[in-house]
Amino acid sequence: MITxxxxxxxxxxGKPAKKLPLSLTLPDGSMHKGITDDDGRCKTWGELEFLPGxxxxxxxxxxxxxxKHGESFYPFVDIHFTMEENGGxxxxxxxxxxxxxxxxxxx
Length: 107
Known about the structure:
With about 110 residues, the chain is mostly beta strands. It has one helix at about 60-70; strands spanning about 5-10, 15, 20-25, 30-35, 40, 55-60, 75-85, 90-95, 100-105. It is elongated.
């Protein structure tokens, strides 16, 4: 079974990025929307069944960064990654600020 979660942290404020919209594109091209909770996490994608393949996770960060910091160099951040058969749980964290971001495969 494959599962997916994400966590968005605002490194300038040192706090979770609440209510930040995300879009997930599956290998078949279908798109699904999510939003971070009060802890900056997105861990529910409805009834999606994740299959092996290439995925695209878009973090729509411009509105959040403008609201919190008054400026945003990035309208969105795209992360492309591959999930494998029996890959278990995939966690894709995003660390953002108005002028930088970082991501890695979390646990």
